[in-house]
Amino acid sequence: MTNLIPKQLRKNKQQRYKLLMVAMVVILLVSVTLAVMIGPVPIPPLRVWQIALSQVFPQMTGDWTQAQVQIVWLIRFPRVLLAFFVGAGLSVVGVIMQALVRNPLADPFILGISSGASVGAVLVILFGIFSFFGVYALSVGAFLGALLAFFVVFFLARRQGNLSSTRLILVGVAVSSLFEAVTSFLAIKAGSGEATRRVLFWLLGGLSGTTWTDLILPVLALVWGIWYLLLQTRSLNALLIGEETARTLGTDTDSFRKQLFFVTSLLTGVIVAVSGVIGFVGLMIPHSVRFLVGSDHRRVLPVSLLLGGIFLIWADVLARTIVAPEELPIGIVTALFGAPFFIWLMQGKGDGK
Predict the structure, then answer these.
(1) Residues 6 or more apart in contact with residue 72 via CB below 8 angstroms
(2) CB 168 within 8 A of CB 106
(3) From 64-78, 234-248, 259-273, the region with the lowest mean pLDDT
């Protein structure tokens, strides 16, 4: 099929993709700079990068104050970078889930995976479960919760060995509601008004108080996940067309699905552990990217990663500036964009047919 495409057309398509990637990287750098600049204490753009470079090259000196160093390097840079990695991770998970279930409405929030991760994380926060894992207890709890939710959704959605994407979405919404109810029950039974308020605020998503240490696990998980998925783009493309086609092309679909369950659960669990529940990113970004570059996962994955990261950087900027000096949970901001997008998909595109 590829050979039938005129050579010049393929060349133009490749050039447009390269230009898009260059533009995305430039927009990312500009977004990071502006996001670090914006805040109660404005920082000039040149000063942002002077301070950042001085932390990498200690021999660099300048007339910046210690307060500016703390604001730029210890408060805003870790937060902006975590926003990028969380947005990138959620977008990549959305790409995989939409290929897995062949439905553009799939994302970890709608299928209940994020809600399952929340239950695991709340058990750690309120009752100290998995405390023997130390600083990784929250991530382990969220990962196991995400994995449990994934298996419950797929077990209930299967009927006579077949997996209907419409049934999968409906079961996912029901399971998501169930896990949210469990989370609310646990928060209320915690017996402390402060603990309940803290958990409920965390569940709406937030990146305040981020430190450089918080970046380690999400970055490692995302790098490993992207590396694995880029090696599997051929199988992902085949799976998106259909299970029979994938088997014809030599993909062991059952084994491949299990591997994708594990990868998406791990990424979702790690992300929820550091940021709370942030919905709709995995729904909006992959769908938008396919409009730009088509459905080939060799292009969809890198562009989704960059666009998702950029989107969440700006969602976080809005969350901390709209009602300043107060701060909105970032999940509210993403829902304001995502809910209308979801309704539009339901009406025009995502009827599961």
Answers:
(1) 36, 43, 47, 48, 51, 52
(2) yes
(3) 234-248
SS3 at position 327: coil
**Looking at residue 323, what is its pLDDT?**
81
Chain centroid to CA 23: 21
State the DSSP string of 235-283. Answer: HHHHHHH-HHHHHHTT--HHHHHHHHHHHHHHHHHHHHHHH----SHHH
Angle, CA of 240, 243 and 264, to the nearest 5°: 55
User: Who has greater pLDDT, 201 or 274?
Assistant: 274
Measure the CA–CA gap between 113 and 93, rounded to whole angstroms. 11
What percent of the chain is predicted at pLDDT more than 70?
92
Q: What is the pLDDT of residue 352?
A: 44
Residue from 272, 237, 232, 283 nearest 256 by CA: 232
Cβ proximity of 275 and 256 under 8 Å: no
Rg of the Cα atoms in the chain:
21
Q: Are 146 and 117 in contact (CB under 8 A)?
A: yes
C-alpha triplet 228, 352, 148: angle, nearest 5°: 50
Contact of 180 with 188, CB cutoff 8 Å: no
Name the nearest CA neighbour of 315 among 86, 118, 41: 86
Q: Using CA atoms, how far apart are residues 12 and 202, in angstroms rounded to an integer?
A: 46
The pLDDT, as a whole number, for residue 77 is: 93
178/220 Cα distance (integer angstroms)? 31
Phi, psi of 110 (to 5 degrees): -70, -35
Of residues 191 and 263, more confidence is placed in: 263
Distance CA 202, CA 297 (A): 33
- What whole-number distance in Å separates Cα of residue 205 and Cα of residue 192? 21
pTM flag (> 0.90): no
Beta-strand runs (E) in the chain: 158-159, 162-163
Mean pLDDT of 11-32: 91
Contact call for residues 142 and 121 (beta carbons, < 8 A): yes
End-to-end CA distance of the chain: 26
